[in-house]
Amino acid sequence: MPPKGNSAPVPAARFGRVKSNLKMGVVGLPNVGKSSLFNLLTSQSAAVENYPFCTIEPNEARCPVPDERYEFLCSLWKPPSTQPAYLHVTDIAGLIRGASEGAGLGNAFLSHIQAVDGIFHVVRVFEDNDIVHVDDSVDPIRDLETIQSELCKKDLDIVRKAYAAEELAVKKTGGKFKLSPLFISTMEKLQTMLEGNIPVRSGEWTTSEIELINEKMSLITTKPVIYLANMSKADYIRKKNKWLPKIHAWIQSHGGGNLIPFSVEFERELWDLHEDQEAAQKFLAEAGVASALPKMIKTGYKELNLIYFFTAGDKEVRAWTVYSGAAAPEAASVIHTDFGKAFIKAEVVSFEDYKSLNEGQKGMAAVKAAGKYRIEGKTYIVQDGDIIYFQIGTLNPKKK
């Protein structure tokens, strides 16, 4: 008999960490709207001032991932406790030309970018004489080139140091070991790309090369990037800006990626109305556009290769974040580390099946009657939106 559910093949190798607690970093030049965007995303009040390097240490927060499925489950079960999935976001200080050599606040901030798993790259496309630009004029293509150049230079430095460290380690063995052909070819390929100002993520890499890079180095240009073009309110409403086609073309010729136009000015005015929903809806209707923040959050979450499953009951409805490709015991461990060790089986129904079959009832009777309530074992690969009940055995103390 074929296995039930989804015991799909192992996903292709990806750069970066395989974890459920991944972070997006908000990156860009000074005074492009990074901290203002961070505040809007997280509803916090990080300092926002009109001078470079206002943000010194990175601010960290989280923002809920908008999801109609989660809202449906909450409205159905009406439990006393609810918790959505969250996207973790870090606000990183502005970089300037020469940062990789220590200019501005330099290498400290590049290390902050190393510490995140994906990048929201904010680029300014609005004109405002009251908000200074670090290069005195608005030119997003120049700004994109500046940031990419600094990140490539930082990665090149990391690669060279890793190569030197490996050579030194081999020398200390007295010739007993040699550098592997895979290591040499991978490092040479990395150096060639980075010297040409080409991000590592733009290259074609084998699984073995990706695994080696993940093991030996934490490179900035392997991280997924979402480009955010900060427009004026007027441009955002009319959905036009002279720089957008040029930015799109630049992105496509530099490794690709998502481009999301938005407006801090627009989002801030909308946020000021958040306690008056009627006024907020009127504002949106008159503008004829929606907030871009939900799309940013969902796209960031997806680019980190994260998904979530639900647990739902009278006491709590909750979304649990896991890395896409996680097997059922790994998902159980997100709830409690011991659950993965004592995993017996998972009782699973997809959200789509549950919603279409439950007929407004909380329980699983209709789902079971339709044969959509599945029993899955250790090899089951959790799917986004699964509703899961885990059966856990008694943990053997010797296996802890």
TrEMBL record:
Keyword Nucleotide-binding listed: yes
Name used for this protein in its record: Obg-like ATPase 1
Compartments where found: Cytoplasm
UniProt GO molecular function: ATP binding; ATP hydrolysis activity; GTP binding; ribosomal large subunit binding
Organism listed in the record: Rozella allomycis (strain CSF55)
Record keywords, A-Z: ATP-binding, Cytoplasm, Hydrolase, Nucleotide-binding
Cross-referenced Pfam families: MMR_HSR1 (PF01926), YchF-GTPase_C (PF06071)
Classification via SUPFAM superfamilies: P-loop containing nucleoside triphosphate hydrolases, TGS-like
Family note: Belongs to the TRAFAC class OBG-HflX-like GTPase superfamily. OBG GTPase family. YchF/OLA1 subfamily.
PROSITE patterns associated with the record: G_OBG (PS51710), TGS (PS51880)
Keyword Nucleotide-binding in record: yes
